[in-house]
Sequence to fold (227 residues):
Amino acid sequence: GNSVTQMEGPVTLSEEAFLTINCTYTATGYPSLFWYVQYPGEGLQLLLKATKADDKGSNKGFEATYRKETTSFHLEKGSVQVSDSAVYFCALSGSSNAGNMLTFGGGTRLMVKP
Amino acid sequence: NAGVMQNPRHLVRRRGQEARLRCSPMKGHSHVYWYRQLPEEGLKFMVYLQKENIIDESGMPKERFSAEFPKEGPSILRIQQVVRGDSAAYFCASSPSRADEQFFGPGTRLTVL
Fold:
């Protein structure tokens, strides 16, 4: 079955530091890949996505590239801000006759200090 | 266009009581997914519904849990005879079609005393 593995947190960085959160996946077929962000007490917001190999998703300074050869979708940001503190989830969609349900990684908590 | 709405946002129940969680999808969305997030874990798929039909309930516990999405009104996730292990955040997501992006609601945080 499908699975997503992402690095455990918490990840603690100083403001303006470079961020990488690793994500690897196992899936049949050609899933779409996503990064979601969850701020305290809130639901998930889609941060970025990529639908096929070598696609790069980007949003708000965050980027991730769909690497089929390494089955990875690592999240990066060149300069983090305190406001980026949140939990980040990597996910893939397994499209089938039964729908497009998402399989999530365990989440990585990011803490950015001023 | 209002987003996905869930209510209540917080629900406290004693062991053995029933919990009813409601999800109103975005306007024009007829596909609803329910996910559960246990403390310090990722979200796990529970059930996928279209209007009046359960399409995939492979992630639902076999007992005590049920879901519906009637022709009119919100989708309901019902948990009978709750136990402490049911304490979690329950999120629903909606989409306009099977293949489209899912939009998440703010979640219902269930606490079982």
Q: What stands out?
A: Chain A touches chain B through 20 residues (CB under 8 Å). Residues 94 and 100 of chain A are 6 Å apart (CA to CA). DSSP finds no helices and twelve strands in chain A.
